[in-house]
Specification:
Part of the twin-arginine translocation (Tat) system that transports large folded proteins containing a characteristic twin-arginine motif in their signal peptide across membranes. TatA could form the protein-conducting channel of the Tat system. The protein has three helices and no strands. By secondary structure, the chain is mostly helical. It has a domain at about 15-55.
């Protein structure tokens, strides 16, 4: 038992009457900004992890360097 198009239109009409178009537009803008900020933070986090994985650590010696020191 799903929602038909008629039911969705009635719900949409009620939401517009209760909240008004200006408030709905503001909510949409705020939600879009939040999603954009979330995506940017995820991308920056992935780039930081990639940079840490690519950059060699100065204090880590390879097996060959360890054997050369002995």
């Amino acid at each position: 038992m799903g929602l038909s198009v008629t039911h969705l239109l009635v719900v949409l009409a009620i939401v517009v009457v209760v909240f008004g178009t200006k408030r709905l537009r503001n909510i949409g803008t705020d939600l879009g900004g939040a999603i954009n900020g979330f995506r940017t933070a995820i991308k920056e986090g992935e780039e930081q992890i990639d940079a840490e994985n690519i950059a060699p650590k100065a204090d880590v010696l390879t097996v060959a360097e360890k054997s050369d020191r002995n």
